[in-house]
Amino acid sequence: MNTHLRTALDLAVRGVPVLPLHKGKVPFANCPTCLYTSCGGRPNMKTPGPCTCPRPCHAWAAATTDPDIITGPAWATAWKQAAAVAYHPGGTGLTVVDLDHADAVAWARRTLPATRTVPTTRGEHWIYQGAMSSANAVQDGVDIKSTMVYARWLGPGTGTMTTLPDTVRALIVTKPSPVRPVTAPVPTGGGECRHRTPAYLERGIAMAEQRITEASSAVHATVYRTFLAVLSAHGRCGCLTDAHAARLFAAAQTKGESPRHCADAWSNARTALGM
Known about the structure:
Blueprint: H1 3-13, E1 18-21, H2 67-70, H3 76-81, E2 84-87, E3 94-99, H4 102-111, E4 116-119, E5 124-129, E6 135-139, E7 142-145, E8 151-152, E9 162-163, H5 166-169, H6 198-213, H7 219-234, H8 242-254, H9 259-272
Parallel strand pairs: 5-9
Antiparallel strand pairs: 1-2, 2-8, 3-5, 3-7, 4-5, 6-7
């Protein structure tokens, strides 16, 4: 058993969801029939795309504590080629403040409560107890890694772990991202668009919000598919407004989606529909 696989199994026993990384911090897929972009994931595999496989197979969504998956055939070759082990911080109730250079470390020491620290190649990881939404570039050289992202496992670190403080939570934008209006020509022929009936449109938006809110797994895929369904039904007649889209964004962010993931899912759904 190689070192990376042994580390992964040790972490899994402690409840830390893990996955193998290629060189360049790129994850392996855990589903042999769905590799890289074939299910809609981005080329760098850092965010999952819509997937109908039996289990998630992209990036952070592939992280698992199941030893049968970790040692199973889908990852047998991956561990032989792996350059590092990654984990899903939010999946184990943690937040990593990734400080990418010396100036970022100095900023954290001036600004944030002390906590457990792990040295990295160029800076440090500061690890707090508690999960939150993730975000990149909240300060120069500072990323927040918690839900829906992965981080490299670089060791247990030193120091006492502190409860996630409000000063870290405040670093990211929590309100829904502004969305572009969905504009399309009203159907010709002089007839009134059926979607303009308030009850019809309201029912559709409410059902979409409920679908997102009730998702217990594959949240990212559920959000994308829900956006796709809403735009397919209501996006071509001009009745869908920014306010409707903002409601969907808010529901998604309540489930842990970041503003960027919401905007990307909305844009991808529009592209898929040729809008």
